[in-house]
Design brief:
The chain is built from 6 helices and no strands. It is mainly α. The mean pLDDT is 82.
């Protein structure tokens, strides 16, 4: 399993055990909203079961490795992959198609402006 697609406790940004910070890192949602949502869910819906679930997750989840991402851009990329792998794959394919189109434009421009190269290509056909 890819280390970057695993849910971890984020002790670096933790308030208690790092569970909410880990969920925030995993989903890309601000930690304050995850914390508020967890508190609201526990108080209004789950009661003591919510506290128990939080502490169980705190003990079961591994601590986030210190250098999981190279930079913030890579962190955002992996958050998007976790949110919607299909959308991320579509975006990557679209980027490759764009690069391929631009490369073909450069090749066309270079070949059309270079008569000697055009003649050599025609000889190969």
């Amino acid at each position: 399993m890819n280390r970057r697609t695993t849910l971890y406790r984020d002790k670096h940004n933790a308030k208690l055990m790092g569970v909410a910070a880990g969920i925030a890192d995993y989903t890309g949602v601000e930690a304050i909203w995850v914390r508020l949502g967890m508190v609201a869910l526990t108080v209004f819906a789950l009661g003591p079961i919510g506290f128990l679930a939080y502490f169980i997750m705190g003990f079961l989840l591994q601590k986030k490795p210190p250098h999981l991402y190279r930079d913030s851009e890579e962190e955002v990329y992996w958050q998007r992959v976790r949110q919607s792998p299909k959308r991320t794959a579509r975006e990557i394919r679209a980027r490759f198609r764009d690069i391929d189109r631009r490369l073909a434009d450069v090749e066309t421009h270079y070949v059309s402006s270079n008569q000697r190269l055009t003649a050599e290509i025609e000889q190969l056909r």
